[in-house]
Amino acid sequence: LTQLSPAQWTSLSTAGGDQGALCIHNEKLLMAGLSSNLWQTTNQGTTWEGTPGYFSPPAQTFALASDGITIYASRTQKIVKSTDNGVTWNQVNNSLPADNYPALLISGGKVFAGSAYSGVSVSTDGGASWNTSNNGITDLQVNALGGKGDTVFAGTRFGIIYRSINGGQNWTEVTPSFSTSNTYMYFITVI
Description:
This protein has 191 residues and is mainly β. The chain contains no helices and 16 strands.
């Protein structure tokens, strides 16, 4: 594990707004979801441009997820996807509860969506259909998702962490003892 000093980081400016999400899509494309729109860079952040084809009017992007081929983005009560590097976007949340989705994850061939009030939903067909998957989850305010393969973690607004070892079918609480009800879970990364 290597620790970087502050001198090894460079501040990069997008076109303004609060950064809500970052996503590396492939070797060349980095997406940044902001309070105002979705921005992209193809030169490691030297310059940024608005993502062509992203829905109008501008809206906050809560979460981004990519498997290198498909990009998913969560906007206010919408999940959209692009299969052409962000040139065109299609809404894919038609069977999801009306909610905001602050967490997205692609893992084990599935797309996971963590919602502000409805728990976790899972799609096995690229977002064409979704199933709620909350067996074992009692805090339905899921703000963070992380995983690798069929092992997926969900973090909630009140600091509870759940783990599924079967692709979201069942969840078990695995909250560490240092977590408190004042802990707000923003990100989970599995390496």
